[in-house]
Design goal:
single chain; Beta-Lactamase; six-stranded antiparallel β-sheet; Alpha-Beta Plaits; alpha+beta; 4 domains
Length: 770
């Protein structure tokens, strides 16, 4: 038996060197990868499970945060819209003094409408400190009796914040002692002397119901903390684990970390809300995550064992079959020579090596021909941050390969073409590649003529970048050369192609790793042309990054703009346009947001014109031109504002003035006639405003404008003239005269003396003497 095994060994493993090596290498090639793949797949699967859970938790927290934030933001916007409405924008102090019942009934009506439209709010209340009344559509009217609660509410009224969210109980108000959040706003907004406070209460049950839908694991806990670390609400645990808030602050931008609490290891995933800086924290027990990994471990072990057995068998069988063509080829190459396997195989390998060397030389030549293009592609990927994860040695090796110095100061220039007006288009759509090619050539020639070093790069978006690098010592003496170079490049491109060109100029840096940041700076400078204008060199200015800004559409400016158009107030409408343009600075990183915002403002202006009865043909002419398309072809906010003023503000204001003049004359005549017929009654501005269908504030302003006297002054004038007539033509007593002209005796004497300089009795006596 031993002899048979020995012969088999010699026959299959010692007879041919290549065959033996192939079997050995094949076994290693089959076994080692299986082991590596098996162990690696287990580790990767376990890591992937945790990573997937973390990503799932991040998505869950984002959903929870988005749901809660949108609810709070919607409630806040609805509250602002109510507070900017006609009722709360009126003179509440005068309304309260002249129409006490109407004041409180108006507040109750507005609060009922608000809470009916916002089912998430558990209560809406208004507190008036003069009487200490708390008005709520849920609890009705109540008086705050406790001095401590009143003082706390007065302090709240004295703070500078016009509107804020308060988390936790609000003990100053009855019924607000449970956990939740409260929106506190002053009435009216932006008033120097607010008359009260508005409260919108949201119980924590709303937040718990939202979080409950996203709890997936046994023992999982979820917390919502405000920016100071105080607990807003929680699910799965009543108290925040000690040290958790500080640990979240230490971790910074890391999406997950492990945290031990009560002998249990948790995987913690935090996110921060961009609306109110609340912390949303999810804690999942590690053992719950590992439960999935254990099944993967068992399955992986079984698969590895099966693969090892099958691999060994297939290796022995497959190697023999694979070697047969080699055996035949060697026999063919040897051509009946002695059995010297190494010599014949080496000769064969030498022959193939010569062929491969020839092929490699051809490929090297092709590579040399394509090196400028490959160098440009490398520079583009470097600008886009594709090599940020490379080590310094790896990056230095790449730079040496493409002949780019690593120890020089870098500056990035981005060249972009401005939008062309209709009728001035020189190039067609299919000429874009030709334009980019020409700009690259102009930039390369200018770099050489100035003795600079750099690379022209096609950004593949109809823009061209120029990466300049120079000696840091030289840069200190030639600080203004780069801007002059950029301006010269802009003029050359503009003159040669007859196109308006804007160039964005970045800062400078000696670190190659900061090149993507320089590229972003140059792009931001180009994007800012919508604010500062194009056809110029725009240098990046240091300061707060636009990516840190939170853009919110200026709804309050739009509302004010509509009101100004409805009133025909041209100056205020123009001022609102300027304020609207200033607010667009927060969206400079995304010019499409600016365009969409102006689309929305255009819609609001057209809607206002329609409500006023103004035909769009009077705004845009009979050509029926699409105003939205016109906005798309305007490249700066200055031009947009100029177009709005010419096409919308001026025609609407002129129309309103013409329409209002006749209406105002008729309304004032109606009010005067009513005053002269009913002067002996207790007349008020509110009564006359109600008759005319106007707000008291607007009627007061209009009356003053038309009569050069206020409403009270004119009513006093009518009453005094009637009293003089009665004093001269009748024997009525002064008290009877006062009653007939609508005054009490004491007030009549005071007002008469103020107007005539003497009392009624003195006036009658002097008149009789005369």
């Amino acid at each position: 038996m031993r002899k048979i095994l020995t012969n088999l060994w010699k026959r299959f493993f010692r007879r041919k060197t290549i065959f033996r090596n192939m079997v050995t290498l094949s076994l290693f090639a089959a076994i080692i990868p299986v082991l590596v793949v098996g162990i690696g797949s287990y580790l990767y699967s376990a890591s992937a499970v945790q990573s997937e859970v973390n990503q799932s938790n991040v998505r869950i927290l984002n959903n929870v945060s988005s749901t809660i934030d949108s609810t709070l933001d919607r409630l806040q916007n609805n509250a602002i819209q109510m507070l900017l409405g006609s009722f709360f924008s009126s003179n509440l102090v005068e309304l309260k003094s002249t129409n006490y019942t109407g004041f409180y009934s108006g507040i109750s009506r507005e609060l009922s409408a608000l809470i009916n439209g916002n089912k998430e709010a558990s209560d809406v209340a208004v507190y008036v400190p003069d009487e200490g009344y708390l008005i709520s559509p849920i609890y009705g009217g109540r008086r705050i009796e406790g001095m401590g609660e009143r003082e706390a509410l007065l302090k709240e009224l004295a703070v500078d914040d016009q509107l804020k969210w308060v988390s936790g109980p609000y003990p100053s108000l009855p019924g607000y002692n449970d956990n939740g959040v409260t929106l506190v706003a002053k009435l009216p907004l932006l008033a120097k002397q607010p008359i009260g406070l508005m409260f919108i209460r949201i119980n924590e049950d709303l937040f718990k119901n939202i979080m409950k839908r996203f709890i997936s694991y046994k023992g999982e806990q979820m917390f919502i903390l405000d920016e100071k670390g105080a607990l807003v609400t929680s699910m799965g645990g009543s108290d925040v684990p000690p040290g958790l808030f500080d640990r979240v602050a230490q971790q910074g931008s890391e999406q997950r970390f492990q945290f031990a609490f009560k002998g249990t290891e948790y995987m913690v995933t935090p996110i921060t809300s961009s609306l109110n800086k609340w912390q949303y924290i999810n804690m999942v027990p590690i053992d719950q995550l590992n439960a999935k990994s254990n099944g993967i471990k068992l399955i992986t072990l079984i698969i590895v064992l099966i693969c090892l057995v099958l691999g060994a068998l297939i290796t022995l069988w497959g190697t023999r079959r694979v070697y047969r063509p080699i055996q035949n080829l060697v026999a063919y190459v040897k051509d009946g020579q002695t059995d010297e396997v190494e010599t014949d195989e080496v000769g064969f390998v030498h022959k193939r090596w010569a062929e491969l060397s020839s092929t490699a030389n051809d490929m090297q030549q092709q590579l040399s021909d394509q090196l400028p293009l490959i160098r440009e592609i490398f520079a583009l990927q470097l600008l886009q941050g594709r090599f940020l994860y490379y080590s310094e040695d790896q990056l230095a090796s790449m730079l040496r390969r493409y002949n780019v110095p690593a120890d020089k100061e870098s500056i990035v220039i981005v060249i972009a073409f401005d939008l062309q007006s209709e009728g001035k288009v020189r190039f067609q759509e299919n000429d874009r590649e030709l334009i980019v090619f020409a700009v690259k050539n102009i930039a390369s020639e200018l770099i050489q003529s100035h003795g600079m070093e750099g690379i022209g790069i096609n950004l593949l978006n109809d823009q061209v970048a120029v990466w300049l690098y120079r000696d840091p010592l030289q840069a200190e003496d030639d600080e203004s050369d780069i801007k002059q170079f950029a301006e010269r490049l802009r003029l050359l491109v503009s003159d040669y192609l007859h196109l308006q060109v804007t160039i964005g100029l970045s800062g400078k840096s000696e670190q190659i790793s900061e090149l993507p940041e320089l590229y972003e700076e140059a792009l931001l400078a180009v994007r800012s042309r919508i604010i500062v204008g194009g056809n110029q060199v725009i240098a990046h200015t240091s300061g707060k990054s636009h990516s840190d800004m939170h853009y919110r559409y200026p709804l309050e400016i739009e509302t004010h703009f509509e009101n100004s158009l409805q009133l025909g107030d041209r100056d205020e409408a123009v001022r609102m346009m300027d304020e609207f343009a200033k607010s667009m600075g927060a969206a400079i990183q995304k010019p499409e947001l600016i365009q969409m915002s102006y689309y929305r403002l255009l819609t609001a202006a057209i809607r206002t014109a329609y409500m006023l009865g103004l035909d769009t043909a009077q705004l845009f002419g009979e050509s029926n031109e699409d105003p939205y398309l016109h906005i798309r072809n305007i490249s700066t906010t200055y031009e947009l504002n100029a177009w709005f003023k010419e096409q919308l503000v001026e025609p609407i204001v002129a129309y309103v003035h013409g329409k209002q003049h006749q209406e105002h004359e008729q309304l004032i005549a109606k009010v005067v006639r009513y005053m002269e017929e009913n002067y002996h009654f207790d007349l008020s501005l509110d009564q006359c405003a109600q008759i005319c269908g106007l707000s008291p504030q607007y009627l007061s302003k209009l009356f003053k404008k038309k009569k050069d006297l206020s409403f009270i002054e004119y009513l006093t004038k009518v009453r005094i003239e009637k009293s003089i007539e009665l004093l001269r033509t009748t024997d009525l007593s002064v008290s009877d005269v006062a009653e007939r002209v609508g005054y009490q005796m004491k007030n009549f004497i005071r007002v008469f003396k103020k107007q005539m300089g003497v009392t009624p009795g003195q006036f009658r006596g002097s008149d009789e003497e005369n």
